[in-house]
Design goal:
The protein has 265 residues and is an alpha/beta fold. 38% of the residues lie in helices and 23% in strands.
Amino acid sequence: MPALPTENMNQAKAAAIQAKGLSSGYEGKLILSDINFSVRQGEAFFIIGGSGCGKSTLLRTLVGLNTPQEGSVDILGKPFSKADLPTRRAQLRNIGMLFQSSALWSSLTLRQNVALPLEEHTALTRREIDEISMLKLAQLGLKGYEDYYPAEISGGMKKRAGLARALALDPAIVFFDEPWAGLDPITSRKLNHQIKDIQQTFGTTLVIVSHELESIFELADRVIMLDKDAKGIIAEGNPHALLKSTTDNRVKDFLHRGSSNNHPV
C-alpha cells in the first residue's frame, strides 16, 4: 500500500476540533472561561448542560460566528479562529451547520436553499448544483418536495431540509444547535436515525448542542457538560459512563432527571 502524503497523514492524526484556552462572551460579559477540549474525527460529540450555561455561545465561537475573547480554535489541525479571512473562508468548506430554527430562506424553495453553499463555495455548473441539491434532499427523505417552500412543509421536514443544506458540500464536520427543538418524539427519533446514518456512512464528525437526554444517550460517543457558575466544563466522557461513575451532584442531577433513570449504563 503506497504511503500517504505527509499532509494527509498529519490531517488524519489531527483532531477534528481543538479548543485551547477559549474564553468567550458578549459585550464584555464573560460566559465561558479557559475552555480546553478536543473533538476526534468521526465521533458524535455533544455539548450539554443547563439553560444559560453557554452551550450555544461555545458552538457559535467554534464556527466563527463569535470571536473568542481569548484562546483559539483549530479545525482539522489548522488554525481557524486566528486565521485571516480568506483562510477561514476556505476552511468553512469543511463545515456544515444546522441551526435550531433550520434558518431556511422563506423566499427560496428547498432545492434553492440547499444550493446556496454550492453556489458560494464551488464553481459547479447550474445543472450540477441542481443535481446535487436534489440528491441531498432525496437522501434526507425529501424527494418530491424540492420545489416546495419552507412555509409549505412541516417542522420536521424543515429540519431535514436544513440538514440537507448543511451536507451539501460533504463537510468533514457538521454542527447542530438543538436539532430536536420543537419536534414531536416520533419525528425526533427519525432525525436521530438519519444523523446516525450520516456519521456511520460518511465518517462525519458531529458536534451537537442539546439537553435532550434520549438523543444524548442514543447518539453521543462523548460529551462535555458546561456549568453556568463554573463558566466552563465540569464533566467530560461517554454519557453512559458518566451516569454510572460521576460524583458531581450537578452532573448527576442533569443526567438522572426525568426518564433518564431508565437509560442503561
